[in-house]
UniProtKB/TrEMBL annotation:
NCBIfam families attached to this UniProt entry: rRNA maturation RNase YbeY
EC number: 3.1.-.-
Pfam families per the UniProt record, alphabetical: YbeY
Record-linked InterPro entries: MetalPrtase_cat_dom_sf_prd (IPR023091), YbeY (IPR002036), YbeY_CS (IPR020549)
Stated name of the protein: Endoribonuclease YbeY
The encoding gene: ybeY
Cofactor(s) recorded in Swiss-Prot or TrEMBL: Zn(2+)
SUPFAM superfamilies linked: Metalloproteases ('zincins'), catalytic domain (SSF55486)
Organism expressing this protein natively: Citricoccus parietis
Subcellular localization, as worded in the UniProt entry: Cytoplasm
Amino acid sequence: MAIEIVNESGAEVDEESLLALSRSVLESLHVHPGAELSVVCVDEAAMEQLHLEWMDLPDATDVMSFPMDELRPGTAEDPGPEGLLGDVVICPQVAAVQAARGGHSAADEVLLLLVHGVLHLLGFDHEEPEEKDEMFALQRQLLSDFLGRPAPDPTEA
């Protein structure tokens, strides 16, 4: 898998953990090994601009996902097609505020947001209660498996 991690946020981010978690999630969901993912950490001003431009909403948000080839999870027997998964954009500064509110570390919040963003790239959503239950349960499971301990509950994602 081609995974690019870029930190333009000015905040300290554990890029190695982001890379390892990205691989773990994509492998767990049987995404084609040739899939490509980009993870970009940006500051609040850049996230606010993206949020306004793409969602027509003010203020910086925690995570945004920009799918490319609409890839979906596969199975061990059929990992699905190769392609560009898309971009996950995370704002560590917003994540730090949410982490404090949720009572866990900013690093855990950034990891949680990464999983959340990747799931959105793979077609998961949380508009309806059933979808939210499914997505958030999978999100917790994937992050818990990676961390080797219970994952924090999302505060805003």
